[in-house]
Q: What sequence folds into this?
């Protein structure tokens, strides 16, 4: 199968890291292509920046359908524009937050999310509620490391993430840790070894879920929530207009 992984920010370094880890865990017969939008912020650390990546992400989704990819992954832990992407896509679209949280519920009763900045907490709290897993989320722990610094000193970053995760386990009752940023890709296994609980990289969770759904022959339901929008005039946005 063919999976397009979309890194919604425009950091080439992060796009390469996401691509490398996705390919590491994908099956030999799965083709992984990882792209970012043509324009937009280098990282996503606010609701404003999350809104701005919308056109670039959706443009990549439309292109993925034109090029007959079998699945799409949106590799940002806010799952930006996931529902709108599903509306315009003929193939399944996976968000790394949703995928990792659902997988976490199969591995332990409660999970905690370890993420980057305090200002992102409200967005993550709303996301957990939207996914319907508030009762299974033990906590959201913040490490105050900017997204683009996550790959700069992996030793310090991993130690900081381990400390926050251990607090989530010992004080909050977490049994599984979800890494709350695509920039943390590749840090799961060193952390898992130190913590002795499952640590989930949402990029990998989404790729493996996409493969499983593909093998099962499952497709998006298009009868209600993810029904394709009807045709209408798009002023100045002709490339996004839905054709009959």
A:
């Amino acid at each position: 199968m063919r999976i397009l992984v979309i890194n919604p920010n425009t950091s080439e370094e992060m796009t390469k890291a996401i691509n490398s880890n996705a390919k590491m865990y994908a099956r030999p017969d799965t083709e992984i292509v990882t792209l970012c939008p043509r324009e937009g912020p280098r990282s996503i650390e606010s609701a404003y920046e999350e809104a701005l990546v919308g056109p670039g992400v959706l443009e990549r989704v439309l292109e993925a359908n034109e090029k007959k990819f079998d699945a799409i992954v949106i590799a940002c832990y806010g799952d930006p524009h996931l529902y709108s992407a599903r509306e315009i896509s003929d193939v399944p679209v996976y968000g790394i937050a949703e995928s990792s949280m659902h997988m976490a519920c199969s591995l332990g009763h409660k999970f905690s999310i370890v993420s980057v900045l305090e200002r992102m907490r409200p967005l993550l709290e709303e996301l957990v509620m939207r996914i319907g897993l508030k009762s299974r989320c033990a906590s959201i722990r913040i490490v105050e490391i900017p997204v683009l610094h996550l790959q700069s000193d992996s030793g310090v970053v991993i130690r900081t993430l381990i400390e926050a995760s251990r607090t989530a386990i010992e004080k909050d009752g977490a049994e599984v840790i979800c890494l709350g940023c695509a920039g943390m890709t590749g840090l799961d296994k060193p952390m898992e070894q130190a913590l002795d609980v499952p640590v989930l990289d949402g990029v990998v969770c989404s790729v493996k879920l996409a493969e499983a759904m593909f093998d099962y022959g499952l497709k998006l339901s298009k009868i209600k929530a993810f029904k394709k929008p009807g045709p209408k005039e798009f002023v100045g946005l002709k490339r996004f207009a839905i054709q009959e």
Remarks:
- The chain has a mean pLDDT of 96.
- The chain is about 45% helix and 15% strand.
